[in-house]
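Summary for the lay section of the report: proteins are chains of building blocks that fold into shapes. Here we show the chain for DUF7869 domain-containing protein and then a coded description of the shape we predicted for it.
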Amino acid sequence: MDMSPATSSTPAPPTSSHTSPSVSSEQGVALSGERRLLGLLRPDPEGHNDIGFPALDIKHDRPGEEAERSDFVGDANEAVRGTGKRHVLENDLDVREHRPSTFRKVLQQYCPTIRIRSPRSNVCGLCAILHTRMRSCITAELTEELGVHTEAAKKMRLEYKKDLASVSEDHAVSVMDFSQNLTLPSVASTPSQWYFLSLVNVHVFGIYYANKGQQYNYVYEESVAGKGTDEVNSMLYHFIQRIVLTNGHRKLAIYADNCGGQNKNNFVVKMLLALAQTGELDVVELKFFVKGHTKNAVDRGFGLMRKKIAKEDVWTADQLLEVINDSSSSSALVHIPKENTMMKLFRTPVKEAYKNLGVQRYQIFTMSEKKPGVVSCRTNAAKVRSLLAAYLEPLQPPPPNFEKKQQMYNKGRPYAPSEIASDPLYAAPTDKEERHAKEAKQARHSASAKEKK
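The coded shape description reads as follows.
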């Protein structure tokens, strides 16, 4: 079907059995603009080679446009499937096909109401649950819960950015996290039988050193150690001794996720408290991201590492170490062999030195040399205000003591002056109150007799 802009009064004959309405010059220019919007840059059949963008009127409701749209969409798919230097085949000019970023810029300029959502990973579970519930029924409770959760995540993110901007010769900032387990061997063409095998796991613990923008990847096999709190303390202690103290830092801020078995527990807090109390560091801050909102610099380094591994055939541990080391220019490899002096059992000494505290209730912990043995737990002021407003209930009085009331009437009232004998303090108990007093006295005597036996 010839859908080129009409340049004469005589309409072009249709090329199929269906009658096609004529297309005006303005419509042809708009369609030519749509072709350029898709990056085809194909010369117009009638010689309209203007490169400028006329007033785009992309409504897709003009008569006969559906066939034309399918025509240039098919051409676009053909251009996308091109290989080599990805030149546009239909274009006589040797112009390279536009990148996706160019499409996004043009679409944002001429079609601002269209939104293309980016791929999501590591989505917060609580946010997903609340959004799913709110699709069917929006309530004040769900809205408030989502608002409190997202507000806490935003505040912790601002705290993280503030610390990253405050790095100095005296202040060091680091982020630590475990990567997903790597396996050996790891090849691009994975044999089908390997899916039913338990391959050798390789653990990677990353510590991002924000002062120099470098990430230290501690790599060890599953036969060396696990992924518990003692392993975290050992590698973190090694990093502090070799990097933080060596560079002369006296204040350290550490960020981590909320994994209780690895990072957020009493043993990690106590180890850092010991470093502050012994004077190796003046101030140590341990801060935890809000659960579900833990994206950080270490994850970026892990992403580059996994992309590099996906392109390589890795059969041995030495090959894996080489790939991890070459995954990024800012990556520093720390290999932990089976025979090493790094892994230590920290829980025994710190458990004897300090008592436990409610770690899971707080997000920020501060240990200072000026306050030896003291851990300051910071909480959100807005959270405190909401708790005070929502949970301040009247204090209920203790239950009445009928036995004492009977004693005051029988043994205290005879000694009181006559003018105060009618005071409620010396009032006579009712029959029901006397019965309760007798039962309480018998129960007390029975309990005392059982204790003597």
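Put simply, here is one thing we learned. Confidence is low (pLDDT under 50) at residues 1-74.
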